[in-house]
Specification:
Elements (H helix, E strand, L loop, with lengths): L2 H7 L2 H18 L8 E3 L13 E3 H15 L10 H7 L2 H10 L9 H5 L6 H12 L7 H22 L7 H13 L2 H4 L7 H33 L1 H11 L1 H10 L6 H7 L5
Antiparallel strand pairs: 1-2
Helix pairs in contact: 1-2, 2-11, 3-5, 3-12, 7-8, 8-9, 8-11, 8-13, 11-12, 12-13
């Protein structure tokens, strides 16, 4: 048994340390949306662009839940979360995401939504850049690249918790693309950034990833406990679509539904 596996089987503190070490090394060698009270309806549904309707968030969520519940009856938790994958690409759900994102042009895929940077990302990520890379004049690309890398690593960490040692091709491709597009030369100018500064930045990055996953796990637990497993998964999709994106990316790997429950600690 490897040293890493032993640490994983210890308590949560040791698991956290293992993940920090794994991600730090991997990155060296190779980041809950709250919507406004009203939502703008997409232009396709409005009578004209100049007369957009507004819909209260609570009403829109309730209506979307009813539609999704009718379209996707139990059980929702199946192998590789296939039903949730289908739900995420459904017209009902994409219309909802377009509305909460105030899109004039509706999303055609769930990935299009996930590719957008959430409104609260800057508030969470900006301090990391400011504290760790004070030389940097932070722009939108920095925030977007950090967030994209972090969400990919969140899915990787889920697989680490489940002791899935082979990384799925779709995550490898996504990570390669994100790292290729990230402005690393701006973050770490050659001959200007000492190794300890780079290390401190990636340590903050990894802490961000691990903390985000723990917040996600707690949110999933609370939602499923409140609404039950099947209704809870629909409410999770509605209220926390980015958490849904992280878990769907992780569970595109050949994993049984029991592993999803094991990860969120509903079953051990």
């Amino acid at each position: 048994m490897s040293e890493y596996t032993i640490m994983i089987q210890a308590n949560y503190v040791f698991k956290r340390i293992a993940i920090l070490l794994f991600l730090s090394a991997f990155l060296f060698f190779g980041c809950t949306d709250k919507s406004d009270d009203t939502l703008i309806v997409s232009s396709e549904e409005a009578k004209s662009v100049s007369t957009l309707d507004t819909v209260p968030v609570a009403n829109l969520e309730e209506r979307t839940f009813s539609k999704l519940r009718a379209a996707f009856p139990p059980p929702l938790l199946d192998e590789n979360l296939k039903t949730l994958q289908t739900l995420a690409s459904s017209d009902i759900y994409l219309e909802f995401l377009s509305r909460i994102s105030k899109q004039v042009k509706p999303f055609q895929t769930f990935d299009e939504f996930l590719d957008t940077t959430p409104p609260d990302a800057e508030k969470k990520i900006h301090p990391i850049f400011k504290q760790r890379l004070p030389h940097l004049i932070i722009n939108d690309q920095d925030i977007a690249s950090f967030y994209e890398l972090a969400t990919i690593e969140q899915s990787m960490v889920i697989l680490i918790h489940l002791r899935v040692h082979s990384r799925p091709p779709h995550l490898i491709e996504a990570e390669t693309r994100a790292r290729k597009n990230a402005p690393f030369f701006r973050w770490f100018p050659p001959k200007e950034i000492e190794p300890h500064i780079r290390q401190a930045f990636w340590k903050a990055f990894v802490t961000f990833v691990v903390d985000a996953n723990e917040i996600a796990r707690k949110k999933i637990q609370d939602t499923l406990h409140e609404h039950g497993q099947d209704d809870g998964l629909i409410w999770l999709a509605i209220q926390e679509p980015r958490i849904l994106g992280v878990i769907l990316n992780a569970f595109m790997a050949p994993l049984p539904p029991a592993d999803f429950l094991r990860w969120i600690a509903l079953e051990n």
